[in-house]
Structures are given as C-alpha cells and as structure tokens.
Task: structure prediction
Amino acid sequence: MVGATAQNDQCVSCLPPCATCNTDGTCATCTSPYSMVALAAGQSCFLCQDPRCMNCTSANAGTCTQCDLGYIAVNGVCQVQCSTAHCLLCTAGVCTACSPYFYLTADNSC
Result:
C-alpha cells in the first residue's frame, strides 16, 4: 500500500509527504514533487524550489536534476524543452543555443 509500511503484521500509515516509510517511521521514498534528503537522524522529504522540478539535490533545493514533462534540466534549472531538432537551450519556446557541432541560424533553428 502506498503511504504505508508493515509493522507487526499491520499496515501503518506514513506521514505525508512520504510515499513509503521505514519501520521506524522515517521516509524511505517521497511523493512527487518532493525529494529525499539524508539527515543525521534518518531521511526526510523536502520540496524543490522550482515547481516544475520533480527531483533536486539535497545540498541545494534550487538545483534540479529531473523536470516535469515538457521541461529539461539545464545547469540545474528547468527550461522549456524545445521541439527544434538539436536544440540545447530554449527561452520561451525559442531555440537560443544548439547542441555541439550545430550552429544557430537566423530563424532560431539548428
């Protein structure tokens, strides 16, 4: 069962935002969009700063490693994923930088 763990042959609910928890009640996994952070006394869930971020580093809640559908993590920030082939970076849906070995043309394609 999601949000619960087995204790003494009984299901015990985990505290939100834990998706699953350990027998001592600490979080084992987090519900999206929360990410796991290791603490001295176990693990806990925290919310990433960017609402489009699905997973961020525990050292810095502002460094995104995985973004929501339609976005891509570029240098730790969620950017709109371009539909332009070979585009590396988009700003407001317009390609502004191309992948290595490709050049940006005047019409913002690669």
Remarks:
- The two ends are 48 Å apart (CA to CA).
- The longest strand covers residues 34-39.
